[in-house]
Amino acid sequence: MFRLRLLGIDYGEKRMGLAVGDELGFMARGLDTILRKTKKYDMEILANLIKRHDIEKIVIGYPVRLDGSEGIQCEKVNRFAAALEKTFSLPVIKWPEAMSTKEAEEILMNSGFGWKKRKEKVD
Fold this sequence. Notes:
- Helix content is about 40%, strand content about 30%.
- The chain has four helices and five strands.
């Protein structure tokens, strides 16, 4: 059975978490967290990953509020998603992720990670 290859992006102003997977969710693998420098640099990193992993669709975390409304960070993700679509001519899916950072921090805190290690893992 044919499955689309996906690139997952956890967008942040300073860092981006990256993962590859398939549309059916059978396979997912975390890649690097990259430190963002410039738009050109970010797009070059992503272009290399898209080519190397035969990516056909991009999924980007969409940080909606608990009530489902959009905040300032959503505007930034919208702009970045539009740039991805324009640059790579691939479909970009915005995946709602209310509470995901908070939940991740709680899990790490309960696992005994200190603040600095939690920050590294959550981002």
